[in-house]
Write a structure and sequence with these properties.
The complex is a heterodimer of chains A (about 325) and B (about 290). Chain A has about 325 residues and is mainly alpha-helical. In chain A, about 80% of the residues lie in helices and about 0% in strands. Classes of the chains: A mainly alpha (about 325), B mainly alpha (about 290).
């Protein structure tokens, strides 16, 4: 298992290199000189030239990329062009905010979606099922920022229960989390429903029913565990993506999280800040995916035995060669 | 068997299965109405009417004169909504067509030739897929600058990998069939086999993906415009209308409810068509 985790972590490296290369190229295609951006419009040509030299902007593109990656490898994400603060400090100070919103959002979505999906599958084609399907459909069709605006309008401006913008108390996190939940929930409901439908039709369920077990018992003891596996994956992937910054939702609620940091950095062509946050998001998503796969192995013994066989075979092949 | 007959048969069968779903038909009717309105609006109303400000008639309520009222600049909201539909649908379809062509090219080459080429192309696509869609689009827009064309390019690039994957997967499923072998034995060229024999038989999942991607693109257009990186005012785009109306939403809720509903209805209708097509093209997938 440890060997497997090591392999997976190593496999993340080429992906992160690829992502960082793409974003680095895109940001460097941009018109506008970072040195001029830092120094402002009034700067002299000599000052700009000196700054360019200091930032290493006069090197060839590929040299700059290689230097950047070499620094990232030892954990140095550089300093923001705009504020001159270390990018890693900025990211770590903003991460908790984004984490709370993403975590609460995914939690709300899962707690609501799984029971609803199960009921919808068990009572297929009933009124509940049809209403659920239509509501899920509607939720996937609404942009998250619009749901956020509706929540602000009703719960903050009209009912005055929760604050509309900013962070501070737990109350600030409720509406943004609900917006995240609404975007992801529909996906979870559909997934739970369709895997549950598949499992219900299996032979062992019929056998259990034939032996006289009640439907409730069959669903809780036999179906749920098997049908939740794919749901765990979808929940995990969504959590990983949301941790990278819920850009639109942070924009609606004026939340100083990773998403806001990223979009401001992109707008201001603050290359170190953009690169740092993108690489950070990719690493977090990769780690969450890995955690989901490990969790999978613990829930499903079949998957675990597959990994063990896989690593054993790998060892045997290594000995042979 | 004459070729035309079998083709018509398949289309008819798909249609008769599609028609059975009420939700799918509702989606189709809605999409058709929106599409027709979006194409026909310039014949009835001048585009200037959606742009020109008239401060004597600001914030008119819903009702007579203006069906949906007027906005903070005195412009008729209904006219702006229909021109907005025109922008969303046309940009959405253009974006998806562009990425479909590029994705089909990459996916077809990878799936058909396999081997090292497949490996390289798909690894590159995986890296692109690992970058969240909106983030990739935002950084491309930031690099290219704002504007409808640049938005189109950015959104198209960010969707190429998903098309490449679907096309590749579809091709792999039909590649090993006997009739492909037969065509090859007859000396048919590779390009012709892909275009004439493989793609038509692998088209189902591609059509479904295309439809669903149009819906997703419309969401992305409005999201990017909302944060000021897409289509900017005064162009009547739904997302930027929402951003404009946000400060006054308590006093004039209809200013956000109408564009929001327009996005939701359009996207939902297209999604319904996509789901209906998926069920009709491959009944085995139905739950």
């Amino acid at each position: 298992m440890i060997r497997y985790i090591g392999q997976r972590l190593l496999m993340m490296i080429p992906v992160i290199l690829g992502i960082s290369f793409i974003i680095f190229s895109i940001m460097n295609l941009t018109k506008g000189d970072p040195a001029r951006l830092i120094l402002g419009e009034g700067a002299t040509l000599e000052a700009i030239e000196a700054k360019r030299e200091e930032l290493g902007l006069n090197d060839a593109f590929i040299v700059r990329y290689a230097k950047y990656i070499a620094r990232v490898a030892i954990g140095d994400f550089g300093r923001s062009y705009r504020t001159d603060a270390p990018v890693s400090e900025e990211i770590f100070s903003r991460f908790p905010t984004t984490f709370y919103i993403a975590f609460l959002g995914i939690l709300f979505a899962t707690l609501f979606a799984v029971p609803v999906g199960v009921i919808s599958a068990v009572k297929q084609y009933s009124a509940i099922d049809i209403i659920t399907t239509v509501v899920a459909m509607l939720l996937t069709s609404m942009p998250g920022f619009f749901v956020g605006m509706l929540l602000i309008l009703s719960f903050a401006l009209m009912l005055r229960i929760f604050p509309a913008t900013g962070i501070g108390t737990w109350r600030h996190f409720i509406l943004p989390s609900l917006s995240v939940a609404s975007v992801t929930m529909a996906n979870f409901i559909r997934m739970t429903r369709s895997t549950m439908l598949e499992v219900i039709r299996q032979d062992y369920v019929r056998t259990a029913r034939a032996k006289g077990a009640s439907m409730r018992r069959v669903i809780f003891t036999h179906c749920l565990r098997n049908s939740l596996l794919p749901v765990v994956t979808v929940v995990g992937i969504n959590f990983g993506v949301q941790l990278g910054g819920t850009i639109m939702i942070e924009a609606v609620f004026a939340i100083p999280g990773l998403g806001t940091y990223m979009i401001n950095a992109i707008r201001q062509k603050d290359i170190p800040a953009v690169m740092g946050s993108v690489i950070f998001a990719a690493i977090v998503a990769g780690i969450i995916n890995l955690a989901v796969d490990i969790l999978y192995a613990y829930i499903d013994p079949r998957v675990k035995s597959h990994y063990e066989r896989f690593t054993k075979r790998g060892r045997r092949n290594a000995q042979r060669s | 068997m004459p070729k035309g007959a079998s083709k018509r048969g398949q289309v008819q069968m798909t249609w008769s299965r599609y028609r059975k779903s009420k939700l799918a038909m509702l989606g189709l009717v809605t999409v058709s109405v929106l599409f027709f309105a979006a194409l026909a609006i310039p014949l009835f109303k001048d585009y200037e009417m959606a742009i020109e400000q008239d401060f004597s008639s600001r914030y008119q309520p819903i009702g007579a004169g203006h069906i949906f009222g007027t906005d903070q600049f005195g412009r008729d909201i209904f006219i702006r909504m229909v021109f907005g539909a025109r922008i969303s649908l046309l940009v959405g379809i253009a974006t998806v067509s562009a990425s479909l062509v590029a994705g089909a090219f990459i996916g077809a080459a990878a799936g058909y030739y396999g081997g090292r080429l497949d490996e390289i192309l798909m690894r590159i696509m995986d890296v692109f897929l690992a970058i969240p869609n909106t983030l990739l689009a935002i950084s491309i827009v930031a690099a290219l600058g704002q504007g409808i064309t640049n938005l189109l390019i950015a959104l198209a690039i960010s969707q190429v990998p998903s098309f490449a994957r679907v096309v590749r997967a579809s091709i792999l499923t039909v590649k090993e069939q006997d009739y492909i072998e037969a065509a090859r034995a007859l000396g048919t060229s590779n390009a012709r086999i892909i275009a004439r024999h493989i793609l038509p038989n692998a088209i189902g999942p591609i059509i479904v993906q295309t439809t669903l991607n149009v819906a997703r693109t419309i969401l992305n257009i409005s999201s990017l415009s909302f944060v000021g990186l897409g289509i900017s005012p005064p162009t009547p785009e739904w997302g930027s209308m929402l951003a404009d109306a946000k400060p006054q939403m308590l006093q004039y809720p209809h200013l956000i409810l109408i564009p929001g509903a327009a996005i939701a209805i359009t996207v939902m209708a297209i999604n319904l068509v996509g789901d209906g097509l998926r069920d009709a093209l491959d009944p085995r997938l139905r739950n």
